[in-house]
Design a protein that fits this description.
Layout (H helix, E strand, L loop, with lengths): L17 E3 L15 E2 L13 E6 L2 E7 L12 E6 L12 E5 L2 E5 L10 E12 L5 E9 H6 L18 E7 L10 E15 L2 E9 L12 E4 L4 E10 L2 E6 L1 H4 L2 E2 L2 E2 L14 E3 L8 E2 L2 E2 L5 E2 L5 E5 L3 E7 L15 E2 L4 E2 L8 E10 L8 H5 L2 E7 L8 E6 L5 E6 L4 E9 L13 E2 L4 E4 L6 E9 L8 E5 L5
Parallel strand pairs: 19-27
Antiparallel strand pairs: 1-11, 2-11, 3-4, 3-7, 4-5, 5-9, 6-8, 7-8, 8-9, 10-11, 10-13, 11-12, 12-15, 13-14, 14-15, 16-17, 18-22, 20-21, 22-25, 23-24, 23-26, 26-27, 28-29, 29-32, 30-31, 30-33, 33-34
Length: 476
């Protein structure tokens, strides 16, 4: 399945995810069970009351109240909720810190507690990222103590193993649809590691996949719960067929002291960040290829990535693996933000290549662990070199009609064609070609004989040789 490029963050659940397979073996997985609708009218599922329906930025997702109270300070600090970054207005290339947030979350969200649900407004986005990770930490306009008094139970954060054993048992608690408002369901299944995952221009690193059933639109942000640890270890952010992707939450764990979030703590790996966006005049393409010159030699493809960044300087490197973005070796020296153009050659090996980018404040700022975790991975698919070929198939019918079908090999964007009488139509003459709008046509027998000329144009505007199809009358 091809990933579709997401132009706007308009989906509460990201779909069409491309996974890089880790050490998974389907034979080792624990069979997934059918989702169970949860009830709580008698307090039988009180441990899940802190998982609620989040409404924010025009989206409906799931959020989880975090247990951040300190043994000494108690639960008097603000209430914090964790969800997926794209649910809270996250934008690729921008780490959001301390931004106002308008929305709400509804707790005690069960099918039989409609009148006992508790809604609280959001106050601010503490931190939000969709690059490398897809997580958002939100602060509510309420204290944790207030919610505990209402019987709302927060969940503790836990660390998913760096490379979890394939088939590790997990639970997902969420609602499968953004429109039914039927309350939480619990799905039990297996989880495994994947080094990277991507949707359109987003690239996430060190992710988890699971095969929990019954997940659908609106389940983004749902907690993935490790029943052995009794902790929330990752957050659902995407779907691919029968599998769901999730983002580990260990980076959030070290960011609290005395019940308050503090992004400056030594154990907190959420900042520094930066704001980066591709310039409108950038010639960057997510797919490209080397150009074949008239003498048969190749002109290498280049990145052509022009951007604006809010830090004085930046570092970058090129890699064949997105995980390399989180390794310090290979990064460039610091470069002035006024020179924000990456035009290095790509490849030459066909396949997916990555550009790693990070903003820095000074010429001597080194790539810290947190900064590399926030690095932006930009994926580019390099296709095999060569000029395109025009591929046309035809089929003759008993009634004398002939069908024509034009086929696009990888990298071909469109065709230009012309047609006419065989003795007066010259396929080598560029005049008369028109954009092909229908890739399958039927030519009536009454229109024969007919000459059809075709030229394929690829994504770097290379043209194929002219193809000639002579359609003759039956029996001619």
């Amino acid at each position: 399945m091809k990933p579709s490029l997401l132009i706007a963050l308009s989906c509460a659940l990201l779909g069409t995810q491309a996974y890089a397979t880790g050490n998974d073996s389907a034979a080792q997985r624990t069979p997934a069970t059918a989702p169970v609708t949860l009830t709580n009218s008698n307090g039988e599922n009180a441990q899940w009351t802190g998982i609620g329906r989040l409404s924010l930025a025009g989206k409906r997702c799931i959020g989880t109240l975090l247990d951040t109270h300190d043994a000494l300070a108690g639960p008097n600090g603000p209430a914090y909720v964790l969800t997926a970054g794209h649910c809270a207005g996250g934008v690729n290339g921008k780490i959001l810190v301390d931004q106002p947030a308008e929305g709400s979350i509804q707790f005690n969200y069960f099918t039989d507690t409609v009148r006992q649900r508790h809604t609280r407004p959001l106050k601010r986005t503490v931190w939000n990222s969709t690059q490398g990770a897809d997580l958002a930490l939100l602060e509510l306009d309420a204290t944790l103590d207030e919610l505990l008094a209402l019987g709302i139970t927060p969940l503790k954060l836990g660390a998913s193993p760096a490379s979890p054993a394939s088939g590790a048992a997990v639970w997902v608690i969420g609602e499968p649809s953004a429109s039914t408002d039927n309350g939480l369901r619990l799905s039990k299944c297996s989880e495994w590691y994947a080094p990277t995952a991507s949707v359109g221009s987003w690239v996430w690193r060190n992710v988890r996949n699971n095969d929990c059933q019954g997940l659908g639109t609106g389940v983004s942000g749902s907690p993935v719960f490790d029943p052995n640890l009794g902790r929330l270890t990752s957050v659902i952010n995407s779907l691919q067929g029968d599998e769901a992707g999730s983002i580990p939450v260990h980076r959030i764990s070290g960011c609290f002291a005395a019940g308050q979030v503090d992004l400056g703590l030594d154990g907190c790996n959420l900042v520094p960040g930066f704001q980066l966006e591709q310039r409108p005049d950038s010639a960057f393409k997510t797919s490209t290829k080397a150009r074949t010159l008239d003498d048969g030699t190749l002109q290498p493809a280049t990145w052509n990535f022009a951007f604006n960044i809010d830090t004085p300087r930046y570092r970058y490197k090129l890699a064949a693996d997105a995980l390399a973005c989180e390794e310090p070796t290979g990064y460039s020296g610091t470069i002035l933000a006024s020179e924000a153009l990456i035009n290095d050659a790509v490849g030459p090996e066909p396949g997916t290549h990555y550009l790693c980018l990070m903003g820095v404040q000074s010429a001597d700022q080194r790539p810290s662990h947190a900064l590399m975790a926030n690095s932006l991975s930009i994926a580019l698919k390099l296709l095999p070199p060569g000029k395109p070929t025009a591929q046309v198939t035809r089929e003759a019918f008993e009634d004398g009609n002939i069908s024509l079908s034009w086929h696009k090999e990888p990298g071909v964007l469109f065709y230009r064609v012309k047609r006419g009488a065989p003795d007066t139509t010259d396929c080598e003459d560029p005049a008369g070609y028109r954009l092909l709008r229908q890739e399958h046509i039927v030519v009536k027998a009454s229109k024969l004989p007919l000459k059809v000329c075709s030229v394929a144009i690829d994504l770097i505007e290379q043209r194929s040789a002219h193809r000639t199809d002579l359609l003759e009358e039956s029996g001619a």
